[in-house]
Design goal:
Length: 874
């Protein structure tokens, strides 16, 4: 049986990795060292998205101006006036130092978000994408909201033509091709998209600088919904962790509720471990997905992209003052690059052979390679499990990147090692216009880089998985016309095509019913090289199955279960409906999936001590008992079964484990699944502040010391910090408070309190029997604990009354690893104001709000009171 996929319209966006922030000096005067796994959106300075309470017949910008009353000078960037989706302006504040709290205090303002930078565009002149725009073309409608010269921070210059021809439009062109490309006969590679007859709408939100503001993207989302699209896909995202952290969530919810299906990428943050998911994909109503690798590579003869003429091969480290083995051990050793610059005299005819490791990746090598002015770089590996990563084709002025498989690596390195010295050799890279298939050893498995669920609030994401690893599709003509890329960006259009197929065959079904069909008919996938089902956090229901979804003759609800954080979750109810025309009997069973941990080897004495989301997984499962494990239903009838889960025992909750699996429902002709996941303990009842991590850092955390590796002080330490005028004392020795938070918390506070405070903490970082008498001016403090001020504070969402959001440095991550430096003599107060710190003796007080608590009682926090910091200011 053949099915025809049709779409009235598809709305496209694209995703790139987030910008990693460098450790920076905060305005409060304290330098924050973020964890290596931290990612954040880069924010446009002094810009905000403001959500207002809707006032009929009044435009959002006018209402905001009335409410503001001249308190702050600003100009409006975008205006959202459709209250069905989002009501309020985005703006840039032009005077003074803007505070988010200033805007929140305005009557009628419901929420405020800083505007982040994201990216990209599409080349619709590619012949495989129709070669044109407008009526009669494949890409027939849309809008350019920004213009070529938009940087994300300057003023957009919109027009009616969404064309982009610069190479950075690659993601959009690639995504559009997966959905609707059709290669002409004897042209390209004979490729056909998932829905080649689809009419595609293209709303361009990125200029050629690869950046755009959240407000521009939100405006495009709203415009597409207002233009009447049936569904849209957004292969973009901003790392959020928390559902409440992004303005996209409420907008996406409104769009789905209006009847427009929204399919998004979940993100490419798999290396960050669980919870590192992106918005808007984490919105509960949105269909977000994971990536399955393609079974075959598309290659040219020997390399994915090959040089057109012989090149002299230079092996970095060969013939230099130190052996190749040192390069292999040292990874990004700068001495190698210095030697390479001296050795390479003709970069245009030189290929550099480099060893690829996890710690020294393509991004780590890129700056040094650019300085060599070479045209070709060949990466090799000595690890058979190293995935071959195909980069985006290079833009002007960059180099071609070639990857060797493990087998090819062994061959070429072996050949070079046996060459006689003192002679010149050439490596011939044979080009071919004939594309070939090469078996991918990781094919049909979950890609390692795709983001891992759930959200902090325990919403199960992804819902399912689609092909997205090593996908050949169209690319801007300026960059070669075709590319093999990997990412959740590539999986989104596959999911769109299958959704459209189901909708065309089952037009009576609602958005939620189609999503339920796609989930319940998916096929759970095994972990790579293991005879165990991959964690639901990594695949959702499993691999999308177009035929099974269309042919399904049963409906299962709900389509997924979140068991939250409990050793014995609440009883769950599953409803099964027979939509066929005959009697059906259903057998109900349970299948566990891999048990994963966010942290591994986290106790004192371990060789690794602290490893963020390693590849260590366990065959550890929940149990499930059913009220009914067998049901017989007449046509059109439904029945319920209850299931009681019991989580597996977990003695180490600080490792942030997640268990998962599938409820399996089988009939004589088909099978269905309902994925579930949960945390096997109560977050509110466990410890948040990690202790006894000696093996990793050389001393227990939390602690106070002069640097991140020095032994922590027990009762008192002497320090000297910068003066209020920035002067540097000769004996400068700044204190660092080091701590690790191992459970999700939406408020983390690091305060400075009196040496003789009467506050009784959960944990002491000193001997409480040792008494000191110090008397300095105090402030009222927080929850009955007088203090001198706040060193640092991280928060998100609902925070206790009276606490200004201006005092927050940023979001708290579910796994916060922080060393905070007291560098300048300034502290913050609850109201967001700053004040000078005088010389004296203080104690650090760390308080972490327990998950689900409202933060208005001292008992809502786990706390640690540290040793004395005797601080001298110059």
């Amino acid at each position: 049986m053949r099915f025809k996929a049709t779409l009235s319209s598809v709305f496209l966006f694209y995703l790139l990795d987030q910008v990693l922030p460098n450790p920076q000096l905060d305005k409060s005067g304290f330098a924050e060292s973020r964890p290596s796994n931290a990612q954040n959106v880069t924010y446009i300075p002094n810009t905000y998205i403001v959500k207002l309470e809707h006032t009929p017949s009044t435009k959002a910008a006018s209402l905001f101006s009335q409410r503001l009353g001249g308190k702050v000078k600003y100009h409006v960037r975008k205006e959202f006036n459709n209250a069905n989706f989002f009501y309020g302006p985005s703006l840039t504040v032009t005077d003074g130092t803007p505070q988010k709290s200033d805007l929140l205090e305005i009557n009628g303002v419901k929420n405020v978000w800083p505007i982040g930078i994201i990216d990209i565009g599409v080349d619709y002149l590619h012949l495989s994408l129709g070669g044109g725009f407008g009526s009669g073309y494949k890409i027939s409608f849309g809008y350019d909201l920004v213009g070529d010269d938009h940087t994300g921070t300057n003023t957009p210059v919109p027009d009616d033509d969404p064309l982009v021809t610069c190479a950075v439009g690659g993601h959009g062109t690639h995504v559009a091709g997966i959905i609707g490309m059709t290669d002409a006969q004897n042209q390209g590679f004979g490729l056909v998209g998932v829905a080649p007859e689809a009419t595609i709408g293209m709303y361009r939100v990125f200029g050629c600088s690869e950046n755009s503001g959240d407000d521009v993207i939100m405006a495009a989302m709203q415009q597409a919904a207002e233009d009447g699209v049936d569904l849209f896909t957004m292969s973009l995202g901003s790392l959020s962790y928390w559902e409440q952290a992004s303005p996209y969530v409420s907008l996406a919810k409104s769009i789905v509720e209006s009847g427009v299906a929204t399919i998004t990428a979940l993100g490419n943050g798999g290396d960050l471990g669980p919870y590192a998911v992106s918005a808007p994909g984490l919105a509960p109503e949105v269909l977000a997905h994971k990536i399955i690798s393609a079974v075959h590579w598309n290659i040219f003869r020997f390399f994915p992209f090959v040089a057109e003429k012989p090149l002299t091969v230079f092996q970095a480290g060969s013939g230099l003052d130190f052996p190749v083995t040192e390069l292999l051990a040292g990874g990004c050793d700068t001495r190698v690059w210095t030697a390479a610059q001296k050795a390479i005299t003709d970069g245009a005819n030189t290929a550099v052979l480099l060893y690829l490791t996890k710690s020294c990746s393509l991004s780590a090598y890129s700056p040094e390679l650019s300085a060599l002015n070479v045209t070709t770089v060949i990466y090799y590996t000595d690890d058979p499990d190293t995935p071959v990563l195909l980069p985006e084709p290079d833009t002007a002025g960059q180099f071609t990147v070639l990857f060797l498989s493990y087998e090819q690596s062994q061959r070429i390195v072996g050949d070079i090692e046996h060459l006689a010295t003192g002679k010149e050799y050439t490596l011939l890279l044979f080009n071919s216009s004939t594309i070939q298939d090469s078996l991918n050893s990781a094919g049909h498995a979950i890609d390692y880089f795709s983001s891992i669920s759930p959200t902090v609030e325990m919403t199960l994401k992804p819902r399912l998985s689609s092909p997205g690893g090593n996908i050949l599709s169209t690319y801007p003509r300026s960059a070669g016309g075709y590319a093999v890329l990997s990412g959740t960006s590539m999986a989104a259009p596959f999911t769109v095509g299958v959704y459209a197929l189901v909708k065309s065959q089952r037009p009576d079904l609602s958005i939620s019913e189609i999503i339920s069909l796609l989930q319940s008919t998916a096929v759970p996938m095994k972990a790579l090289d293991m005879d165990i089902i991959s964690s639901v956090t990594q695949q959702g229901s499993g691999l999308i199955n177009a035929y099974a979804a269309v042919a399904a003759d049963s409906q299962i609800s709900p389509s997924q279960l979140s068991l939250l954080d409990s050793p014995k979750p609440a009883k769950q109810t599953i409803t099964i409906k027979n939509t066929s025309k005959r009697l059906k009997t259903y057998s109900i069973s349970h299948s566990g999936a891999l048990y994963i941990r966010t942290f591994n080897n986290f106790t004192a004495g371990s060789d690794q001590a602290f490893v963020k989301f390693t590849d260590v997984h366990e065959a550890k499962y929940a149990t499930a008992k059913f009220s009914k494990s067998r049901l017989s239903l007449q046509p059109g009838k439904s029945a319920k079964t209850e299931v009681q889960f019991t989580a597996p025992d977990e003695p180490q909750p600080y490792s942030e484990p997640i268990y998962s699996g599938h409820i399996k429902i089988a009939t004589d002709s088909s099978s269905y699944v309902v994925p579930y996941l949960g945390v096997p303990y109560s977050r509110s009842d466990t410890e948040y502040i990690a202790r006894n991590t000696t093996a990793w850092v050389g001393n227990d955390r939390p602690y106070v010391g002069s640097d991140s590796t020095s032994p922590g002080v027990v009762n008192i330490g002497n320090y000297s910090i910068l003066g209020s005028d920035g002067s540097v004392p000769e004996d400068i020795n700044v204190p660092i408070v080091n701590f690790i938070i191992v459970q999700p918390s939406n408020l983390i506070r690091l305060e400075i309190v009196p040496v003789n405070t009467t506050f009784v903490p959960t944990h002491y970082g000193f001997d409480p029997a040792v008494k000191f008498d110090v008397d300095l001016p105090l402030r009222e403090g927080f929850l009955g604990v007088p203090n001198y001020g706040i060193m640092a504070q991280w928060g998100i969402g609902r925070i206790p009354p009276g606490m200004s959001v201006a005092s927050l440095l940023g979001w708290p991550y579910p796994d916060t690893v922080t060393g905070f430096i007291l560098l300048y003599p300034f502290l913050m107060h609850e109201n967001g104001s700053g004040f000078d710190l005088t010389s004296g003796a203080f104690r650090p007080l760390l308080r972490v709000l327990r998950y689900g608590a409202n933060g208005t009682s001292a008992d809502d926090y786990e706390s640690w009171l540290g040793p004395i910091m005797n601080v001298k200011t110059s």
